[in-house]
Each structure stands twice: as structure tokens, then as C-alpha cells.
Amino acid sequence: MTIATIATAPIDGQKPGTSGLRKKCRVFMGEHYLENFVQAMFDGIGGVAGKTLVVGGDGRYHNDVATQTILAMAAANGAARCIVGQNALLSTPAASNLIRTMKTDGGVILSASHNPGGIDEDFGIKFNMPNGGPAPESVTDAIFERTKTLEAYHIWQGDPVDLSTLGVSTLGEMQVNIIDPVEAYVDLMKSLFDFPAIAEMIKGGLRIRFDAMCAITGPYATRILEDTLGAPAGTVVHGTPLPDFGGMHPDPNPTWAHELMDEMMGADAPGFGCASDGDGDRNMIVGPNCYVSPSDSLAVIAANAHLAPGYSDGLKGVARSMPTSAAVDRVAEALGIDCYETPTGWKFFGNLMDDGRVSLCGEESFGTGSDHVREKDGVWAVLMWLNIMAATGKSVPELMGDHWARFGRNYYSRHDFEAIATDKADALMAELRGKLAGLSGRVEGPLTVAHADDYAYLDPVDGSTSAQQGVRVVFEGGARFVVRLSGTGTSGATLRLYLETLETGKLDLEPQAALRNVITAAHAIIGIEAHTGRTAPDVIT
Ligand code: G1P
Ligand code: ZN
User: Fold this and answer.
1) Which domains does the chain have, with CATH numbers?
2) CA dist 534 to 90, 267, 415, 481, Å?
3) Which residue's CA is the nearest one to ligand 1's atom 2?
């Protein structure tokens, strides 16, 4: 058994974002590919000699094999210790928690989030910092630069680690701790939420359906809902993480979690429905015949978080991404707390949380979380809702009805136009940006444009700026639409159109009907059909 130094050539690495490097699984399986990236990652963070790292992933195809490679390379690069979830499993929020509470030097998370898994699907790897959050751009840039010049990597050559057995072993000089991936996370949740009250509510007859979509939250939800809170077996469906997610597209939205939606909209719907994504950071909340939009979920949580023991002192402040609806702004105003608007992507929340400015954050894209970790957290959002229901004695439809009656209703929808040719999408955005200045006063049906701009962000903590984060067109009276191109797509460009209008009177309209005038105006102003030939979106959330 020895440390080998193996020659490698630079890889086609692409610049990793805060979600790390995502590629087709077969690319990662190519000769030296993963190894090159891992060595570049270790070098990019200043080496791992003497360091302790958390390692784990969402269980998708190649998760176990890649984990062995990472451990062997960490050992060869002089790491002191790796803390690994049993069978190489860790949800992204659970990994963030371990990195923080075990005071490690960071962690390696294997996931491609909500993207499908399997040998012909997606794989991904990212590095999280000692604060538990994704590496900032300065670090991911350093990693990327290193992938281009790397000539060799170091790897321990010996027997692989037994990932299935809990306990401590060694790989060369490095200690390997195989831990229960769920336990510490359950303790964290118990410290934040009123488990006895939730258990009492379940005992009283609340039926719950949690769809884990054959991904990582199965073991977490089963341990918490069924084993700890007393929900009957079968509450969690699709609860075993599978390498290909059982063929599911593990993205918790009405389109991909349609089995859950059908059940919740049916005659015998449970009292509470929820789902999480591949790596456990996204969530969807549904009541019987009552879909809760993520923007509304954030607002309801902001208004009621003080009912959960971990938040009984109230929230420091809240933050939402710019395209997320302003429903939470109205709550923040009523509570007298700060509300920050940031560009799309969880990374912008990290600075605000580290600086103690906000304790609750959310995005319209099914991401909600707090400063208990530095990632969004699907199971956390589910427990927050259950805690609110237990404390108020109200159902999901009652909570929504009360919320809208008090704050008004921000009708909201996102329309995605997928797989557009990149040049056409770029031309559309360029033309739109070019005419922003002249849009004020333009009349479209009953709507008049009040102002339009291209959103730019100044980070109040570190002073950094981010330009061109989405075009927003606001109408007199406050209705608006936002247009931006996805930064996470894999084939062509995805155009996202976010639509919003506030109603204080009519609270039970169908959202698409409530937004009809904004939709019509958006198409007229953007010229989506003229640029792309598309008249209707591929996905509506
Ligand atoms: C999407 C979501 C965004 C989220 C990101 C990562 O990014 O819109 O809110 O933070 O996935 O989960 P997009 O494809 O829009 O760039
Ligand atoms: Zn995810």
C-alpha cells in the first residue's frame, strides 16, 4: 500500500459555480477526470494536509465510487481525518450542519441537486467552507484555474474503506469516521422545533404524506416523521435513495412531484403533503386542495416562525431572491424587521446570515432555509410548517386564507421556456435590455409601465457588485414581471419569466387567471414568440 503520484492532463472542467462542477456522470467516470478535479479542489483550498473534511452525497449513481476516490486522495494529500456518512450518504443541509458543528475545515458534497441521476444522467461535486456554505467565487476560481495546469495527482493505493460499517478506521495515516448520516441532523431539528407538539398533532389524526422522490431525504424523513414523531409507516413514500432515483426527476414542484399533487388534490387527501429534491435542500408544501407557492411559504414562515422554539426571539431579518414574490416584504414590514433582496442563488444569503442580518431566506424555486445551516433545507421547511400547524391548530388552507386576508395575496407564477437556442435567447435579452429606458409609460391593455431596469446588486456586507441579474418591468399599481436566463441549465438556454400581481380584495382566483394581463403584457414587451417561436411555456410553477 503506497501513495501513488499519477500523471494527468488538464480537464475540460468548466468554471464551477457555487453548486460546484456538474457534468454527465460518464464524464466524471472518464479516466483521471474526477481525480484531476479533486486534486485541483484540494490545491485550490490551500491543500488538505492536517485538515478534517466531511464527505458524502445524495446517493446518485457513482456516489459510492467517487467517495472512495476522494478518501484515497485525501489520505494521499495528508488529510488528518474524514467524516463520512454511512454508505457515503449525506443530504446537503446535513453535510452543512456537520461541517459547522464538528468544526471541520470544510466538506466535499457529491450531488447534482434536483437533476436526474444514473449512468447517463448528471453527477456533481462541490466544496463547502468551514462556515458550512458553498465556496465563494474566489475559491471556485482558484480550483478552476488549477484544473487547467494540473499535471499529476496523489492517491492512496490500498483496500477501499468499508463505507457501510459505522466506526473509526484508517486509510494510511488518515482517520476515517463512518457516522450515521441522520443522527446529528435530527438533534438539530429537535433543538429548533416543538417535537412533542407535532407528535401530539399527528396522534390527533393529522395524516402526512412526504414524497422523498427516491432521493436522499428518505432516511431523514422516515427517522423524523415515522420513528420519532409517530407518523404511521408509509407516511414517507419513495423513501429509499436509489442510484437512478427510480427514474424520477427529483425536483419537488407540481410538474415532477405529480404523484403527490394528484393525491393532495384528490378526494381522500392527507392533511399535509410535502416533497424534497435529490440532495434534500428544496421543498414543496401542499395542503388538501391547496398548493402553497414557495413565495407564499416563505411569507407564512416569516409571519409565524416565532411559534417554533428555535425562533421564539423573532427573526433578525429576512431575505428573498429578486424574482421571488414580495409577499414576505409585507410580513417584514408588519414585523418591523429588515427585508433584503438579492440576486437568484443561495450564495448571496450566506454573507447576510454570517453577518447576523437575517435568519430566514427563501427563493421562488422551492428553496427555504434559515441560519441553522448555510444551505437551504427541505426537511427543515417541512418541520417548520408542521410546527406552525401544531401551534396554531390550523390547517394549510386555513393558514393560507388567514395570511392573505391579513397581508393581501401576491399572485405569482413562473413560466419556463426550455431548450431555446442560446443565440436566440441572448438576442432576446439584448433587445430587451436595449429598450428598457424607453419602456416607462408604455401601455399594454389595462397596464402601464411605471419603470423597468436590469437588476444589479451591491452586497451590503462585502461591497461586491453583481450586474445584469434579471430584467424587471414594474407596472403602475405594483404588478411586475421579471425575465432572466437560467444559470443552471444543461441543454441550450432556459428563459424564466416570473409574474406577480398583488390583490387585497379577490383572494381565491386561479393564479394564471389573476396574472392574465401581466402575462399578455410580458409577451408583448419581450416578443417571446418573435424571438423563439414559442407561444406557451414548457413548465409552469
Ligand atoms: C435555479 C433557481 C435558483 C436556485 C438554483 C439552484 O437557478 O432558479 O433560484 O438557486 O436553481 O438551486 P437558475 O436555473 O434559475 O439559474
Ligand atoms: Zn438541491
Assistant:
1) 2-181 (3.40.120.10), 185-407 (3.40.120.10), 409-540 (3.30.310.50)
2) 40, 36, 12, 18
3) 365
